[in-house]
Amino acid sequence: MDLRPPSVRALLEELEQLPGVGPRTATRLVQHLLRHPSGARRLAAAVAGAAQIVRHCRECFLLAEEERCRLCQDPARDREVICVVEDPLNAWAVEATGEYSGLYHVLGGTLDPLHGVGPDELTVSALVERVKRNVVGEVILATNPTVEGEATAHYLARVLRPTGVRLTRIAFGLPAGGEISYADQVTLTRSLAGRRGMD
Amino acid sequence: MILRRLRARGFRNLADQDLQLEAGLTLLGGPNGAGKSNFLEAVAVLGNLSSFRPISPSQLVCWGREKYTLAGVVRRAGSEVELRQDARLTRYLTRSLWRGGRRLAMGEYLQLCPVAPLSGYDRALVVGAPEERRRFLDRVVFHLHPEALRLLQQYRRALRQRSELLASGGGDGAAEAFEEILASSGARLIELRLQALRALGACLEAELAELGWPAPRPQVRYHALDGLGGPDATQLGTRIRSALARMRRVDAQQRRTSVGPHRHDLAISVGGTPAREALSAGQTKLLAVALRLAALAVLEQRLGSSPVVVFDDVDAELDASTLMRVLARLAGRAQVLISSARPEIVVPVVKGGAVWWVESGRVKTGGAERSLP
After folding, report:
1. Does B164 sit within 8 Å of A151, measured CB to CB?
2. Are B33 and B69 in contact (CB under 8 A)?
3. Which residues of chain B have a CB within 8 Å of the CB of A119?
4. Is A193 within 8 Å of chain B by CB?
5. Cα–Cα distance, B145 to B199 (Å, whole number)
């Protein structure tokens, strides 16, 4: 006989839909939540609030609470540079460096035919429009160095080239603090190919 | 390189056991189905993550069980390395690879204890499908350039993406994006294959001479029907790119990518005739052995020492004098493990080796007297 009350069962079912959560983790989470009812209520409110208010910025598709995100509204940002990333997490990582002062463009994934993702499933046309409409001097293609990320960079370069904008690809190579003798050969090959002059 | 210890749990029909292995030559005897091949397979899979038999990885798990572990201690260049693989069978076989307490990527693991595998299935190198020869050559490529593994994975992934894209009616722009990757990784792959083939060809010539193969000796060359390879390997990237673009419509209909290194082959001929037509069953086997020995020699040159050699069913299809010559080529190597269902034929030509007996999946070490006729 299933001893779990219907409400607990419903909660388990919802939790198991989350990435990385299986039946056992879900059970542990439920146990914890029910032991701490006030925390559970705060979590519920946070989830409900976020689900209601969070949307994609209509310019750059970062997560935002307004039509346009704070970054796109910030007059201090350099509007002539756009860094194109696969998802908001990548933008957060670039932003955390504190070295980048331009704007972003979130694609919402990569070209991935095996999972049914083509250019129309990404925010590619919005990016092209953005580059045409505004004074943009450089587009940095910062997709991941996977097959899909590389293909997406090639694709973007192809569709953006007619606009005449300067296109750059982020460099790949040795990790900071790493040693050449420990680097794998693919990484080393790429860092050689991506070398630059010392002036 | 010497595999000193082997631990097997849940692997094929081998009994769970821990074995101390010996340097030099070890002959495994025992009736058919006793587990001789499975034991040699355990050694091959421990080092290479693949068997010399054409079986799917999920079949490596003992029937009725859902995981296996293979572990070993290998002595190389004066130090001992512990390696282990834990495999779990769900829908696929997933393996975690370890060196001591550190988890390794496949490319790193495969370099710890490369095993040179020889078996009756090697005939397929001469008479089998192109895929067999590609896999053989790509293994040599990997031994010379370990980074080729990622290149190959990248190439295959881009291939699947392009085929899917074309099948689902995707646009030229997206197809071009994946073709860009196929062109750059494909060109590099062909370049590395040609380089590996040159090394292999030189060693093959030497092995055939040692095995007493009379003229005309078999020749191996790179065979690319699409013209993207062979002697003219210049501007390969550009040529692959335009060939892919040209074939896009046809490929969309046929749901495959019709040009590129995944369609290439090795052409083996004797005096201008394809080897599969020119050779007898025994010659075919001997040529296959020579190809394996040549790959072993390339690997030896690269490592500066001899890898572990396994040879399953050593006497099948070879006459006594040929068998002697083959065994002579293996003698003197650091560690050679061979099996035979008729050890009474092999024992007299094996000098100074150990003879072990295999029964019901269990290896009995040091039982030489039992196997002698």
Report:
1. no
2. no
3. 171, 173-174
4. no
5. 13
Quick check: A150 contacting B, CB < 8 Å?
yes
Coil vs helix vs strand at B331: coil
Model pLDDT for residues B93-116, shown as the tens digit of each residue: 999 999 999 999 999 999 999 999
The interface predicted TM-score of the complex, written ipTM, equals 0.82
> Hey, is the C-beta of B137 within 8 angstroms of any chain A C-beta?
no
Q: Does B142 touch chain A (CB under 8 A)?
A: no
User: In the block, which residue shows the tokens 């129309």?
Assistant: A120
All residues of chain B having their beta carbon less than 8 Å from the beta carbon of residue A189 are: 147
DSSP B263: G
What is the CATH number that goes with domain A75-197?
3.40.1360.10
Q: What is the β-pairing status of strands B335-340 and B24-29?
A: parallel
Asked whether residue B24 is assigned to any structural domain, the reply reads yes
Q: Considering its fold, how many domains does chain B have in total?
A: 1
Residue B3: give its domain's CATH number: 3.40.50.300
Q: Give whole-number Cα distances, A29 to A12, A39, A48, in Å.
A: 9, 12, 18
Residues A190, A175 contacting (CB under 8 angstroms): no
Q: Which range of residues forms the domain containing residue B5?
A: 1-114+307-317+333-373
Under an 8 A CB cutoff, do A185 and B145 touch? yes
Cβ–Cβ contact B145 with A under 8 A? yes
Q: How far apart are CA B334 and CA B339, in angstroms?
A: 17
Each residue's pLDDT tens digit, A111-161: 999 999 999 999 999 999 999 999 999 999 999 999 999 999 999 999 999
CATH number of A6-53: 1.10.8.420
User: Among partner residues B147, B165, B171, which is closest to A189 by beta-carbon distance?
Assistant: B147
Which residues in A lie closer than 8 A to residue B177 (C-beta atoms)? 111, 151-152, 154-155, 158
Structural element, H or E, at residue B265: strand B265-270
| For chain A, domain boundaries | 6-53, 75-197
Check CB contact of B372 with chain A, cutoff 8 Å: no
